Amino acid sequence: MLGGSDFRTLLTSHINLKKTLCDVILMVQERKIPAHRVVLAAASHFFNLMFTTNMLESKSFEVELKDAEPDIIEQLVEFAYTARISVNSNNVQSLLDAANQYQIEPVKKMCVDFLKEQVDASNCLGEAKVDQSLPECGMLFTV
């Protein structure tokens, strides 16, 4: 019987299978990102609703994600398979925006935790700009 980490390892070791056995292609600008609906739906409330309701995308092989950054979507898809993502000062804003839009709660939490670690008196006004994109981040700036 496979446990949580064993299953994640199995998925990670067979990640290339998603290129041949995928059942959805995410179209992000000019990039095609292959995936499995069930994996995306398990990681994201947004994709769960998209694929399990009568939305047009539930029957489409290709799903266009407008106004998304291809590199960020690839990281989120990889997260759906591995539960791992690298949050840093270069990608935190984009990841937070995308995780909020696609309702991927663990990534939102990782971004908020990263921002909490970065906030101090010398940079809190700059970080307040990031806060405007996600109201619940306001807790970062309360004393």
From TrEMBL:
Database matches in InterPro entries: BTB/POZ_dom, SKP1/BTB/POZ_sf
PROSITE patterns: BTB
Top-rank lineage group of the source organism: Eukaryota
Signal sequence range: none
Pfam families, A to Z: BTB
Domain BTB: 22-89
Key words of the record: Kelch repeat, Repeat
PANTHER family linked to this entry: KELCH PROTEIN (PTHR24412), KELCH-LIKE PROTEIN 7 (PTHR24412:SF435)
Protein's recorded name: Kelch like family member 7
Source organism (scientific name): Saimiri boliviensis boliviensis (Bolivian squirrel monkey)
Gene that this polypeptide is encoded by: KLHL7
